[in-house]
Amino acid sequence: MAHIGDLLAEMLARSGIDYVFGMPGGQTTALHDGISRRTDRIRHILMRDERNAAYAADAYARLTGKPGICDVTVGPGANLLPAGFLEAQNASIPMIGIIGELPLDWLSLKEKGIASQGFDQLSFFKTCSKEAFLVPSVAALPELLRTAFRIATAPRPGPVALIIPHDIFDADWDEDLLKITVDDRSARIPYLRSVAPPSEIDAAITLIKKAKRPALVCGGGVHGADATAEVTAFADRLGGLVVTSLSGKGSVPETRAYAAGVLNPLGSLAAIELIQEADLIVWCGSKVSQNTGMNWTLPKPDQATITIDFDPLEHGRTFRPTVALLGDVRECVRALDAGLGDSRAQANPGWLARIAEVKARCEAEKAVEMASDQVPILPPRIMVEIAKRLQPEDVVVSDASFSAGWISGYIQAEQAKRQFLFARGQGGLGYSVPGAIGAATVVPKGARVVTVAGDGAFSYTVGELATQAQYNQRIVNVVINNGKLGWIQLWQEIFFNNVQSATLETQSMVPGYAAAAQALGLKGIYVDKPDQIAAALDEAFAHDGPSVVEVRIDDRATPIHSFKRRMRETDAKPRPRPGTVYKLRDWKVSPDL
């Protein structure tokens, strides 16, 4: 039977899409039938939750540059997608959601679920996507799919909703419809490249040559433009500081002497300290978000600025740049590098020495945590052991909250590539386990995907371990379990007199994530002493399939430097009286970081 689902599967396969992530429903079964006929070119990964389908598609897109494709059915399937759509929207990740819908002639019956599971899906997805379309006819579908690819991959990339009514999905189609194909230029990002005008490039070069303490801040746009090689070459020539956002980690190798790590309250203390001393900051593919901009205290009034971004609305959003370079990151950086030529920026000879000095001091402080034999375990000790086992083709997927800080601060990006995935578009819990499923479809044979999540985040998507087991994916899930929502616990302790609403367990109920993993068909390993970590990770990395390594950690450990300072101050003082409320006027970190 040739139906529209068959046509859609064929067009996706011809566009280079090799995996679709989702959960079928009656309205979308035709798509699954179409995919089942083409398993040599395209496969479907059955997820346990539609929200997680979007997260898996997101990770697939970040690693391939192709739009991540997720599919859901009408109603309850559709209304779970927005979390993943918003992550992709805010992080500029190309995605296409194929969404089932009631038959077209049931339009008047959608409201309030008169027709089962009906609601106004088009309006709903207009609020959380780059664009949303309701397919009105069989003839319109190929052109709308082509348009969805173009919009999803064009600057600035993002998610597109393609809503297909049931009667259209099941309808017959004519071979002539295959004459409309997806443009190969929009099959992956970047769709098109452009470069800023020569006059602006020249102005930027003049600023760089004049700077004594230049700094380069690399955001996720460096990876989106596939520009790590060019950015690293430019950074080598710049003679200054290089830091990244979480999403930009790996823009340059962090083994370089000038690289000071991730600029974020969760990240590198050296990066936070040194960026204040720069006299020029080049914001490269960075939207200067709240956390990378340190609550928009950066740039400082006396710092000259250059912004490089293909989105015109990003230039001047939170500050007026001295020079704004509107264009593709790779092309603009190439132009800057060529313009500098053999003459290095006239940086203060002491700038690189200052960078080395601050880095050495901060690394010495970190080394104490990384070597700690404390029980309960400090997370940096775990990160050291993970880093020892990572191979060049492995991928690390971070969950939100403290996990992002432990990874970014204690596992070095040794290569200029996208090897670390951080869910920073929304920063919501529950990304790592489904994200790893998408990543595992992409990594080369023999490579590993490693996730790091707190117990709170891991609880969100523990059901997707069944998916990892079903497809026997080579994923090592590391759960750092402190029995609490760590961020919320410390926030409450510091500012609200230790209000206890962040506890995830009691003495009579202690969740066993390693045991749950074993019940779902994975290898499960529990660790509560530092000298057990190495053996546990060796066993997990050697396992031919997915595993969970659950590590009991200190419930007051935090990667946030201001939290560490405040905890020390709190420990040194008498506990506040009940009802004491701290003033937050000097607070520099979002409570939802």
List its salient traits.
22 helices; 6-stranded parallel sheet; Acetolactate synthase-1/2/3 large subunit; acetolactate synthase activity; THDP-binding; Rossmann fold; 37% helix; thiamine pyrophosphate; alpha/beta
Can you describe this structure?
The protein has 593 residues and is of the alpha/beta class. The chain has three domains: 4-186, Rossmann fold (3-Layer(aba) Sandwich); 198-358, Rossmann fold; 371-572, Thiamin diphosphate (ThDP)-binding fold, Pyr/PP domains (Rossmann fold, 3-Layer(aba) Sandwich), CATH 3.40.50.970. It has 22 helices and 18 strands. It has helices at 4-14, 29-36, 50-64, 82-91, 121-126, 141-153, 166-169, 198-210, 220-224, 228-238, 269-275, 329-340, 349-370, 379-389, 402-410, 432-440, 455-460, 465-470, 486-495, 513-519, 533-542, 561-572; strands at 19-22, 43-46, 68-72, 95-101, 131-134, 159-165, 214-218, 241-244, 259-262, 280-284, 304-309, 323-326, 395-398, 420-422, 449-454, 475-481, 523-527, 547-552. The strands form three sheets. The protein has a six-stranded parallel sheet with strand order 2-1-3-4-6-5. The chain has a six-stranded parallel sheet with strand order 9-8-7-10-11-12, sandwiched between helices. Strand 3 (68-72), helix 4 and strand 4 (95-101) form a beta-alpha-beta unit. The longest helix has 22 residues, at 349-370. The N and C termini lie far apart (51 Å). Residues 574-588 have low confidence and may be disordered. GO terms for molecular function: acetolactate synthase activity; flavin adenine dinucleotide binding; magnesium ion binding; thiamine pyrophosphate binding. It comes from Gemmobacter aquatilis. Residues 583-593 have a biased composition (Basic and acidic residues). Residues 403-551 form the Thiamine pyrophosphate enzyme TPP-binding domain. Residues 4-121 form the Thiamine pyrophosphate enzyme N-terminal TPP-binding domain.
